[in-house]
Design a protein that fits this description.
Elements: H1 2-11, E1 29-34, E2 39-44, H2 54-66, E3 73-78, H3 91-96
Parallel strand pairs: 2-3
Antiparallel strand pairs: 1-2
Amino acid sequence: MSLERDIILALKQVYDPEIPVNIYDLGLIYELRVDEEHNVYIQMTLTAPNCPMADYVVAQVKEAVEDVPGVVSATIDLVFDPVWDKSRMSEEALVELGLDVD
């Protein structure tokens, strides 16, 4: 379980290029799996499907995860279904952006 925690901490170091909040608290990570060999699978999205920085963000996520000690490899699957919306954001992200916390 600590490897998953370390991966989440690494993901919190990757920021959306347009919003000053990390991708994990933005709710852009839909799925995170670590297999027995320490290969990581991440299903993620972006705040907008036409983001011009998509390749950069995916590369940043892959690099951040593969830099975690113990991780063998990372596969990043970029999806747009379901579509991201602010309901996926953490309370901390909502507060950071000055949005209403429901």
